[in-house]
Design a protein that fits this description.
The structure is a single chain. This protein is of the alpha/beta class. Among the domains are: 46-137, Transcription Regulator spoIIAA (2-Layer Sandwich), CATH 3.30.750; 514-599, Immunoglobulin-like (Sandwich), CATH 2.60.40.1180. Helix content is 27%, strand content 17%. It has 17 helices and 23 strands. The protein has an 8-stranded parallel sheet with strand order 13-12-11-5-2-1-15-14. It has a 6-stranded antiparallel sheet with strand order 16-17-18-23-20-21. A 3-stranded antiparallel sheet has the order 7-9-8, with no helix packed on it. Helix 7 packs parallel to helix 8 (288-307) and helix 13 (397-406) packs parallel to helix 16. It is globular. 47% of the residues are buried. Residues 1-32 have low confidence and may be disordered.
Length: 602
């Protein structure tokens, strides 16, 4: 063999040397070449926006009656520009008896008088659009108030409305023919039977929520058409889309041929008459509901095709298992669904005792299940849940907000999260939430009440926190408003609001955050790392100690990082300063401390 190579004038040993040299040169040349910049495609307006949820009764009162209103929201639109918000979503503003504070709608085509007029709504939309802010409405298709004309006509069996709602005859009592039994053992979300007797109609109607919230019958073509007409009406008024409320409840299992509804198995938990006592297999997440959502998406797309302008988005409220939740995006074959289902995993799966591994798993779980090409979203609080700092800890506010704003996709902020508002105390005497009133008593109502998360916004330290000129407001202002309010945080050298502002500015300006990949990793039990990276663009990493003790983590465990790293932003109690250099190696973080670092491209 050696003889053969010698004929060529090269020994085997020399050839190996040459190969090594050539290989080294080749790799050196390759290593010296920068990767080509990625193709950056324009995103639709909603795909990387920040949506800010407004609870209208508690945002800003313009007329001194102690109740927030549309003029109040319009007067504060500059707040969203200054904060870096791209869209506002308002909880229901339609005519309602206010049993469930707007989620019991009696007139889907008009504005609740205490919130203002149609002219006020039109002015809000015009001014918001002038400022580049989109306006989303809360659409409640599952049910209507029993004060609505729909229900009154259906109860009276008026032609065309007989089957607008879910009506049922009493279930026969085998032991007493004259006795009236409810059609099934189904339990309302607010406690008690879903069935309520109508003396006028001599039948039961179904209500998944309060007695005054009768469920529409979505197996009735006229109902589905009416929902499309309502949505079209408000899109023509300038609404940029909808948050679709309570849609897991659109359908219930139909009765059998004899008109008998099936009972649900008992779950083995909770108390009789309370949600969770039965399995709810017959009252939520039925497969039929997805086709309705897909039809609504068709409406959105057809509206844009017909009228032009920007995309009208459909966002689904979807408390369901992960597989059923992902179906809201579409069926991956021939139907497109909602632009996204809300991701409530940070609400339902995490709490103050969660570890960095819990956080990492929660993020990756969503990103693993999401269909290819769809847009993620992240929700840390809303009007139905305890406020973010009250579920976690107040020293985690900046880390949680930074995490929300750095993750890929859409970021959702509930009003007050930008300043770290906590749950307010609402006494039993001041409690107005129908859920608490129905299910609780003076000793346990706070287990069920949603009022603490709905107390008025803290604008400043004046009367009623600047929310109203009236010292009496529909819910009491939280006592901590003198120390936690927007004006104070604007004036402070460091504050939750300024961290939030800085992060939204970073989010808007950095292509890595809008188009880049993500990597999430638990460096220790308590320290979470979220890395956002994109070839040829700066890399960003969030380090967040979610624990209750000082923690030290090693940055060399993150393969995507190289030095030098500089501090872009940090939580208010951090001893670091913007521009500080962080070396690759061990980093020590205080409990709740968050650091946002900038590094060179991957």
């Amino acid at each position: 063999m050696n003889k053969f190579w010698k004929v060529l004038g090269v020994t085997v040993g020399a050839l190996v040397v040459i190969g090594v040299v050539v290989g080294s040169i080749t790799w050196a040349v390759l290593a010296s070449r920068s990767p080509p910049p990625p193709e950056i495609q324009d995103l639709d307006w909603w795909e990387h926006t920040i949506i800010y949820q407004i609870y209208p009764r508690s945002f800003k009162d313009s007329d001194g009656d102690g109740i927030g209103d549309l003029k109040g929201i319009t007067s504060k639109l500059d707040h969203f520009v200054e904060t870096g918000v791209g869209a506002i979503w308002m909880s229901p503003i339609f005519v309602s008896p206010m049993v469930d504070f707007g989620y019991d709608i009696s007139d889907f085509y008009n504005i609740q008088p205490e919130y203002g007029t149609m002219a006020d709504f039109e002015e809000l939309v015009v001014k918001a659009h002038q400022l580049g802010i989109k306006v989303l409405l809360d659409f409640v298709p599952n049910h209507a108030s029993t004060d609505s004309e729909y229900f009154k006509l259906s109860e009276a069996r008026a032609p065309g409305y007989e089957d607008y709602f879910v009506w049922a005859d009493p279930r026969p009592d085998p032991t007493n023919a004259s006795n009236r039994l409810v059609p099934s053992n189904w339990i309302s979300q607010f406690g008690g039977s879903v069935w309520e007797w109508s003396e006028l109609r001599q039948q039961y109607y179904l209500h998944q929520f309060a007695i005054e919230q009768a469920d529409f019958n979505f197996r009735e073509a006229a109902v589905k058409k009416e929902m499309l007409d309502i949505m079209t009406f408000w899109m023509e008024k300038g609404a940029d889309g909808y948050r679709l409320d309570a849609i897991p409840h659109l359908f219930e299992t139909a009765p059998d041929a004899d008109g008998i509804y099936p009972d649900e198995p008992l779950s083995g938990s909770s108390s009789p008459g309370q949600p969770g006592y039965t399995t709810q297999i017959h009252v939520r997440d039925l497969i039929e509901l997805y086709d309705v959502v897909y039809e609504w998406r068709d409406l959105s797309d057809e509206f844009k095709e017909k009228h032009g302008g920007d995309t009208k988005i459909m966002l689904a409220e979807a408390y369901a298992n992960i597989t059923m939740t992902m179906l809201y995006y579409g069926n991956e074959r021939d139907r497109i669904g909602a632009h996204f289902p809300f991701n409530f995993d940070f609400i339902t799966n995490l709490w103050a005792g969660s570890t960095a591994r819990d956080f990492a798993y929660t993020i990756q779980r969503w990103m693993t299940y999401i269909p290819h090409g769809k847009v993620a979203n992240w929700v840390f609080g809303n009007h139905d849940q305890k406020r973010m700092p009250s579920r976690f800890r107040d020293n985690m506010v900046d880390g949680l907000n930074s995490l929300n704003l750095m993750l890929p996709g859409v970021s959702v902020t509930y009003q007050g999260e930008e300043i770290g508002m906590q749950d307010g105390f609402v006494s039993w005497e001041d409690t107005v939430d129908v859920n608490a009133c129905n299910r609780g008593n003076e000793s346990n109502y706070l287990e069920f009440s949603r009022d603490p998360a709905r107390t008025p916004y803290h604008w400043d330290d004046s009367v009623s926190a600047g929310f109203s000129t009236n010292a009496t407001t529909w819910l009491p202002v939280s006592e901590d408003y003198t120390t936690i309010n927007l004006q104070a945080q604007k004036e402070a050298a460091r504050s939750h609001y300024k961290v939030y502002q800085s992060m939204t500015a970073l989010r808007r300006s950095e292509t890595t955050l809008s188009h880049g990949q993500h990597h999430v990793q638990a460096l220790t039990q308590d320290t979470l790392a979220l890395v956002r990276y994109l070839a040829t663009y700066d890399t960003f990493v969030l380090l967040f100690n979610v624990g209750t003790a000082v923690d030290t983590a090693d940055l060399t465990a993150i393969d995507l990082l190289s030095g030098p790293l500089t501090v872009c932003e940090r939580s208010v109690h951090s001893s670091r300063a913007s521009g500080d250099t962080i070396e690759l190696g061990e980093v020590t973080l205080q409990p709740g401390e968050a650091l946002v670092l900038r590094g060179p491209p991957v």
